[in-house]
Design a protein that fits this description.
Layout (H helix, E strand, L loop, with lengths): L8 H52 L58 E8 L2 E8 L11 E4 L3
Antiparallel strand pairs: 1-2, 2-3
Length: 154
């Protein structure tokens, strides 16, 4: 009688289970790496945008909400690409709002990695205090604990 060599059904099922488990672990790692990369991209974009906002404020004495730099007001700017924000272009309605404008002050990167607009908020609450920030609403697109921001009033 010939001795047949091969794999039993149990051995094949165990092998498939192990490969599936390893694939799942790899997927989790990839998802975490992608999330981390998006957060880093948002932080990089915000550094560039904050630099542009500070340069705009230095040159014109105004924030993107058109408030005087020394009194930032309480009006949020949810679309920093708008001419009225003064970062990319100066619309005809904004000429008097931004004296000495000599922009553009930013590259055209105004949506975060989750496709939401970056925002300027002069009354954003950080540790119970009202602060001037430029930020992203984070992965969930809502103003809450996962927001990413840079303080502009330090």
């Amino acid at each position: 009688m010939k001795n047949k060599r091969g794999f039993t059904l149990i051995e094949i099922l165990v092998t498939i289970a192990i490969i599936s488990l390893l694939g799942s672990l790899a997927s989790i790692g990839v998802i975490k790496a992608m999330r981390s990369a998006k957060i880093k991209q948002a932080e990089t974009d915000l550094a560039m945008i904050s630099s542009g906002i500070i340069t705009l404020a230095d040159a014109t004495g105004r924030w993107p909400n058109k408030a005087v730099r020394t009194t930032p007001g309480n009006t949020n700017v949810l679309d920093l690409t708008a001419d009225s924000a003064g970062l990319l272009a100066l619309g005809t309605n904004s000429v008097t709002s931004f004296p000495n404008w000599n922009g553009p002050y930013c590259d055209d990167v105004m949506t975060d990695p989750w496709k939401n607009l970056y925002f300027f908020d002069p009354v954003y609450t950080v540790d119970g205090k009202s602060r001037i920030v430029v930020g992203s609403l984070g992965p969930n697109g809502k103003k809450d604990g996962d927001d990413i921001y840079i303080l502009l009033d330090d």
